[in-house]
Every structure is written in C-alpha cells, then in structure tokens.
TrEMBL record:
Signal peptide: none
Protein's UniProt name: Rubredoxin
Record PANTHER family: RUBREDOXIN, RUBREDOXIN-1-RELATED
Alphabetical UniProt keywords: Electron transport, Iron, Metal-binding, Transport
Domain of life from the UniProt record: Bacteria
Rubredoxin-like domain segment(s): 1-52
Molecular-function GO term, any one: iron ion binding
Cofactor list: Fe(3+)
Cofactor note: Binds 1 Fe(3+) ion per subunit.
Family matches, as PROSITE patterns: RUBREDOXIN, RUBREDOXIN_LIKE
Record-listed Fe cation binding positions: C6, C9, C39, C42
Entry's family note: Belongs to the rubredoxin family.
Length: 52
C-alpha cells in the first residue's frame, strides 16, 4: 500500500499505521479512508494528498 503526503503540511499518511486518533485502523489503504477524513495536522481534505 502506498503512502500519501499532504501537499499543505507534508504529513505522511502511512497505511501500515493508519490514523488511530481519527479511528482509522492500521492496514487501511488511503483509497479506503472515509470521504470526510482530513489531515490530522492541518485539516485539509483527501484531495490535497499526493502519493509519497
């Protein structure tokens, strides 16, 4: 699974880690994140992420 980088703050979403603080379990692919998921650091939406 690919990692994705936030183009605003450079946060890296790593599917192996997920986003536990947002209830996203490890092993969750970026494509499987809910549409309303946002960057945990700066709050922008999924559309502001690019493959890392």
């Amino acid at each position: 699974m690919k990692k994705y980088r936030c183009t605003v703050c450079d946060y890296i979403y790593d599917p192996a880690v997920g986003d536990p603080d947002s209830g996203i379990a490890p092993g969750t692919a970026f494509e499987d994140l809910p549409d309303d998921w946002s960057c945990p650091l700066c709050g922008v939406g999924k559309d502001m992420f690019k493959p890392a």
